[in-house]
Amino acid sequence: xxxxxxxxxxxxxxxxxxxxxxxxxxxxxxxxxxxxxxxxxxxxxxxxxxxxxxxxxxxxxxxxxxxxxxxxxxxxxxxxxxxxxxxxxxx
Length: 91
Prior knowledge:
It is built from two helices and no strands. It is mainly alpha-helical. The chain is elongated and about 65 Å long.
């Protein structure tokens, strides 16, 4: 492998590490936003009150979508890092 190919592999692995570090950095913030959105409304914040059984079906669907959103975003970003690494290993 020539010098240019070695630099390309190193650059690609650095990009994958940057994506992984981005995921690690953004995960706590996304978790806080998810918890605040699901919480009951208070004087300082407006929440969906997902723990209440008497909310409408639309609010229940929104609560479910918010619950599903957090792991999917994290897994999608980690998959992007895996794809970056896998693309250089295969090709």
